[in-house]
Design a protein that fits this description.
Length: about 325
């Protein structure tokens, strides 16, 4: 059936006021924020801390939904394919929205740039290298010496292939020649459980995932992949002090499906800025080693683009391939 341009114009004229009303009434029902990992990781912690404040500011319940799997790609694809109406959001992070797409390239089930509308960066999260207390290493030098003594038998776990922890450790391996085998998990909580149990000797994960275990003595902190040192763990020296150029962080931010109306993006951005600025939110993030961020959609879009380009270059230089 063919519709001429003259016939289409009245239909479009009727649709535009309806679209405008829908945007003006947004949100009219609960909003869901999809998390790429199981409960217990940094993305989950941040989303659940923000949820009640966003619920209050937006006047509708914000529901946190964990959709782990495929190294975070399941959640990313779900949101990328969702209706661009402001009711489905992604708590994006460095793995599935920066490093993972750089590693997997065309095998990523979405385009990390074109398939999303940026809302706001909310966090920068330091990465910690931790070991089981039985491992005889107190710093990065001793860990590298231990790895050499193990002659390729040492392993480390992360929240998944292409996660921030995975890419940080692979960068360390490329710069030092260390032979340490990667063991991917489906999130931070199961990784930490096996690290504590001694199933794996080492792990690289976010500060909120490992700091409580370090404080309780269940895990021994070895180093941090960023600088300066963390106030919550001042004894952890930056890896770059021993291995120049070895720096990496995880980050978090909110993305919506591409094509989400600018008016909805602007309202979400304003609510996120207000929520992050609340002392009880800001201070709670800092206590867990998370550095709160605020800003514009444009700034976050630029940051995501720069991260994908940066890690694509690292993948090419290191000749990394998905496992």
């Amino acid at each position: 059936m063919r519709i001429t341009r003259r016939q289409a114009l009245p239909v479009l004229g009727l649709a535009l006021p309806a679209l405008a009303r829908a945007q003006a009434e947004w949100p009219a029902r609960p909003i869901r924020m999809v998390i790429p990992y199981p409960p217990g990781g940094a993305s989950d912690i941040i989303a659940r801390l923000l949820a009640p404040h966003l619920t209050e500011l937006l006047g509708q319940t914000l529901v946190v939904e964990n959709r782990p799997g495929a190294n975070g790609f399941i959640a990313g694809e779900l949101v990328a394919r969702a209706a661009p109406d402001g009711y489905t959001l992604l708590m994006a992070n460095a793995g599935p929205n920066g490093m993972g797409p750089a590693l997997y390239g065309s095998r990523t089930p979405y385009d990390a740039i074109r398939d999303f509308s940026a809302v706001m960066a909310v966090s920068v999260v330091p990465l910690i290298l931790g070991v089981n207390p039985a491992v005889p290493a107190r710093n990065i030098q001793e860990l590298l010496a231990h790895a050499r003594a193990q002659a390729g038998r040492m392993s480390y776990g992360t929240a998944g292939i292409g996660s921030a922890g995975h890419m940080a450790m692979e960068l360390l391996k490329s710069l030092t020649g260390a032979e340490i085998t990667h063991i991917p998990y489906r999130g931070s909580a199961p990784t930490a459980a096996d690290l504590i149990a001694g199933v794996i000797p080492a792990s690289v994960d976010t500060a909120p995932s490992l700091l409580p275990h370090i404080a309780a003595g269940r895990v021994k902190g070895v180093a941090i992949f960023s600088s300066p040192r963390l106030a919550e763990a001042p004894d952890l020296a930056p890896v770059s002090e021993t291995v120049p150029g070895c720096e990496a962080v995880s980050w978090g931010g909110v993305l919506a499906p591409a094509g989400t109306p600018p008016a909805i993006i602007a309202r979400l951005n304003a609510a996120l800025n207000q929520a992050i600025a609340k002392p009880e939110v800001h201070d709670a993030l800092l206590r867990q080693g998370i550095q709160p961020q605020r800003g514009t959609p444009e700034a976050f879009a630029g940051y995501v683009g720069a991260e994908v380009a940066k890690w694509r270059g690292v993948v090419q230089r290191m000749a990394l391939r998905p496992e």
